[in-house]
Amino acid sequence: MRAKKRSNNRSKSRLNSLKWALIPYIPVTMAMAIAGSFLIGFYSNDAQEWYANRYADSRSVSPHYEMFVDETGTLVHSYVGGRRTVFTEWQYQLGYAIVSGAQMILIPLWVVLCIAAMGILFYKRELEKPIGILMDASEKISENCLDFSIEPVKENELGQLCRSFENMRSALYENSQRMWSVMEGRKRLNAAFAHDMRTPLTVLKGYTELLAKHTSDGKISEAKLAEILNMMEGQITRLVRYTQKMGAVQKLEDIVPDPHYVSWEEFRMRCREAGKVLAKERQIWFWGQSDQEVLMIDEELVLEVYENLVSNAARYAASWINIEVAVCDGTLRLVVEDDGKGFTPEALNCAAEPFYRENTEPDQEHFGLGLYICRMLCEKGRGELQLENGGAGAKVTATFSMV
């Protein structure tokens, strides 16, 4: 059935071809050329007769007697004679020659006119509209105007060309939208970067002005100088950490997961030890279970997400953190829950966006990039990041597909 359908489509395509569209015009053109040539010859003869009657002198030819034997052996004899056309003026003779020879020019000219008329009609009906559409589309594309569509008006080669133009326009439009989205994202990141850089730079500027004012007159003690320098060092450290985070965000787009075989026991032990270190003085409960002894994952990518989640939980937890690492049916799931204040309704929607930070954020060195990085890495690993409020506080679940 499919082969028959393809054969029917090919036959239909051939019938709709431009060369087949030209065929109906040929017999019409030939009929017009033949009919016109006949009429030109007929009226040329009438014109010759009219011209001769009007401008020529008809003179009699002297009669004479003829005798001959025909094919049957019969003797035929009679008087014969007639008249002939004579022009007394050379101008009339020239005019008669022109009238007589006009059909030699008019007939080829009429044939040419018929062919030209056929070409114009064929262009108007078959070519003009699709060519106009393609020209208009090419002008719009050259002007970077891609918000339009191209509809094929004929099921022939020009229709196929229109569809090809539409496919090209659609691809260019999607690429343009994608590039615009990337540029808007970069613009938003740069704006947030500039905004968050202002606070530490303002502080550093204030410390510098204070040192410049009091160092010259010797009114600042060594203890105060050491304190100011220590504060400046803290701000510089904050700037260094912030720029490192920014660098990490801009490189997320280029990350390509590199899955490799990892022992489940080794991976579980790494997660448990890292969780103990990152939880600091908080109590930690760690649960790990798997239906596979060997995992196919990008361990570095997964651990980056895991450490970010545990660090966030340690910052907000009141006393404990609950961690679950599980593998089931080809999916790796990381669940981190704390007994802190949990997510606000706004945070549930925005916490995974870059540089999101609540007004009541206790840690002023927190730049709001951790959950954003986790979300991006989960998507790279064909998984997702889910934020919710658990029984006591915030609960974050990260998944990765190993299939």
In words, what does this structure look like?
- The chain has 403 residues and is α+β, with helices and mostly antiparallel strands.
- A hairpin with a 4-residue loop joins strand 8 and strand 9.
- The strands form three sheets. It has a five-stranded mixed sheet.
- Residues 1-12 have low confidence and may be disordered.
- It is elongated, with a radius of gyration of 48 Å.
- It is 60% helix and 18% strand.
- Helix 3 packs antiparallel against helix 4, helix 4 crosses helix 5 and helix 7 runs parallel beside helix 8.
- The protein has ten helices and nine strands.
Number of helices: 10
Q: What's the mean pLDDT score?
A: 80
The chain-level structural class is: alpha+beta
Strand order of the largest sheet: 4-6-7-9-8
Stretches with pLDDT under 50, minimum 5 residues: 1-12
Helix proportion: 55-70%
Order of helices and strands: HHHEEHHHEHEEHEEHHEE
Indicate the overall shape: elongated
Bin the strand percentage.
15-25%
* Main sheet properties: 5 strands, mixed
Number of strands: 9
Write the layout of secondary structure elements.
Elements: H1 2-15, H2 18-22, H3 25-55, E1 57-69, E2 75-86, H4 90-142, H5 157-215, H6 222-251, E3 260-263, H7 264-279, E4 283-290, E5 294-297, H8 299-316, E6 320-328, E7 331-338, H9 345-350, H10 370-380, E8 385-389, E9 394-401
Parallel strand pairs: 4-6
Antiparallel strand pairs: 1-2, 3-5, 6-7, 7-9, 8-9
Helix pairs in contact: 3-4, 4-5, 5-6, 7-8, 8-10
